[in-house]
Amino acid sequence: MLKKVTQIALCIIMLVCAVLVDVTVGEIDQDFPEGYSYAINVNVSSSSSPKRQLIENIDEWARESRITPVLVKPDTTDVIHVKNLYYFGQKPKRCASGDCPVSWYRRGMKGRYLPASEIKALNLSGTYLFHDSNQCFSFSRFLRGQGVTIEENMQKNDHLLAYMWRSHSTIPFLAVAALLFIVSLVWAFLAEKMPSVRIKTQSGLGKAEIAAQSVYEFLRYSSLQLLLLLLLSCLILSILHKFYLFGFVIKYLLIFFLGLLLLPAFFISISTVVIFPSTHQIAIREGAPRASLVGSIVIKVLSTIVVVSVFPTALANFGVARQQLGSVSRWRQISHAVNLQIDPSEKTEDSYARKLVRVAYRMEGKRQAALSYSAANSIAQNSRGTIDAGLMAPYDSIAVMNPTFLTSLHIQEKSLCKVQPSMIDPALAGKIRQYDDLWLAKGSTKSMTDMLYSPCQGSHASIPVLLATGGVGTFSLVHKPLIILVKDLKALNPDQFLYPAMTTGNLFFTQPDGVEEALHQENAQQAVYAINSIVDDAVLASQIMEYEVYLDFILVITACMAIILCAAISSRLWMIRKRRWIFVRHTSGEPYLSIISSYLLQAVFIIAGSLTLSQLLFAHEWQAVSHPVLTVVMILLAFIGLECGFAFFHARQAFAAMIHRE
């Protein structure tokens, strides 16, 4: 039984490794397509040059220096499956023959090399790719001369594990779960071999010979199935993905394949020498207590604490990532949305500000002006300059929105419930009222406390809230915000709120054609030097979140496999120690449930203690769990169910072994 459980667990983990390699290679390909090795992330909003002028300057510099910077951007016609590379200067050599498609690892992805003149409404901020570091350095120096901010320099890392470790916070938890799985796998194998090892030891075999035989047996029954799964994974990935980068995929599949064979084999050889009792210990009956001590304490306590600590964290992360993906999928519905990049060099700013505000009014009349502003930093800030979460409770954010923003993300207004001022903290209500004179239009008879709404009870959808700072389209995701719902933009102060919201991208427009028409009607074209798509950062966030979902899914699976092995091991060790006692009790007519009740009580005690300790050690992670009590109960019941099932099986096996004198 334990041997079969071990084999199944190995197969599942091999498949999990294949998924991990696949999604990570796809992630690397998204960052460094077409064999590029260096990249820089830039923010052009700090530059005073108009967008068209900046494109011309970069293009001219690229032709003179014979360097071809390439900007990666999603296509607004299909932001998920089409990503183009826009080149400055000379056409890349591989595109000399004409139309030049881009090769992506994911089969559903496509794109083309396009000249920079085709950028149009896309934002110049983003990732620029190069083949060597000197080109990257020269371009960075040129951009600084143009007033552009260089946010990050990146170099392609061909070491997949190093890339994962540096890129994502989930990886340390995944490493803990993987180590735990390897240890549990070794202990499962040793627990299965313990009776035969005792016989071999009494027959005179040395520990080195027993260790060699154990390693050989593990490799013999594990290597064939893992090899078949390796070939199957390669076949499936070759069907689902393009051949591009496939050699890289096979390389790391082989590394994981060898790791799943050699690491357990190494630990088995060491553990056999260190743990198994000698002939003298067997003669004085020290072997069984020692096996029980090692199995019960090391496996039942240490492993359970680590698994139970990792599992809720992974579960919480998985739930958060799932909510984030749901919000991003709604954000993708407005892939054509744009914001206005205001010309900071315009000296008649006041007159143009009024014109731009009238543009917003025109767009609102067409229901094409969307407002979202995260106001928690302003309203709920404490004396230390941080957000006072206690003041906002039970809400996790404060946001100013209008109905157009909600409907553009497919969030129905009827899903929001009215919040009366008496229902929130009086201190918070007072802080909100302090902003009435600043944010509301002069002469307004209403207070912002009369505009308060929140998602109705039972609503589980997270809502994206645009931040007041950061990249264009950067948002935070909140589950229960306190929303100041402004149904008419004219109710807001045009100078103190609306115009600043346009400059930061918190007021954006869902149709670019309508914006150009409104700018022409208000004669405000000179105040705007760029109309930019805001979907770029949302797509990048989506890409990161999708990868996080995969990692959390892999983490949960790995932890679950360790839990199953842990339950199987402990009951197996218990059977070895108690089989004579089981035989006597069951022969006298006592049912198996009564026999294993003491074992199950011990298991419940250990699990409860582990849960308590994990909550103390990982209190922050437990706060992220939506329903901590329910999660604890579910983990407890699942673990008891596993323990009960394995205990029943091994108790029956112990009774049968005594009958047949095995």
From TrEMBL:
Extract the coiled-coil ranges from the record. Answer: none
Is Heme tagged as a keyword? no
Q: Which residues cross the membrane?
A: 171-190, 226-246, 252-276, 297-320, 549-571, 592-617, 629-651
Give the signal peptide, or none. Answer: 1-21
List the keywords (alphabetical): Membrane, Signal, Transmembrane, Transmembrane helix
Q: Which domain of life is it from?
A: Bacteria
| Protein name per the record | Bacteriocin-associated integral membrane protein
